[in-house]
UniProtKB/TrEMBL annotation:
Residues 3-90 form the N-acetyltransferase domain. CDD domains: NAT_SF. InterPro entries: Acyl_CoA_acyltransferase, Gcn5-rel_NAT, GNAT_YJDJ. It holds the Pfam family Acetyltransf_CG. This is N-acetyltransferase.
Length: 108
């Protein structure tokens, strides 16, 4: 699959230009991004596409020296499974309740 990588957004389109898969991680504050959306078209589910998206998002976040707060349910689960990727997470994040830290960061 060919992915289009833009600032804080990685996605794939079909030949008709329709969205097939995406991950969004916009800047919320300073050097902090929120991984707030992971989408995979039903026709592609179960093929590892969401994992590929999160790997690419992780690499982008790390390369840009950002820190992340995952609020999308898939991203939270992905980070729980991939403890070796926690280096990009905001310090002190509780993956069982990431919204608490997100609300704290956004209220600063």
């Amino acid at each position: 699959m060919n992915y289009i990588k833009q600032n804080h957004h990685i996605y794939a389109l079909n030949e008709a230009g329709q969205l097939l898969a995406e991950v969004k991680f916009p800047i919320t504050s300073g050097n902090i991004v929120e991984i707030n959306r992971t989408f995979v078209d039903p026709s592609l589910r179960g093929q590892g596409v969401a994992n590929e998206l999160l790997v690419m998002a992780y690499e982008s976040i790390k390369a840009q020296s950002f820190k992340a707060i995952p609020t999308c349910s898939y991203a939270v689960t992905w980070f729980k499974r991939n403890k070796d990727k926690h280096d990009v997470l905001v310090e002190g994040i509780d993956l069982d309740n990431p919204e608490l830290l997100y609300n704290e960061v956004c209220s600063r």
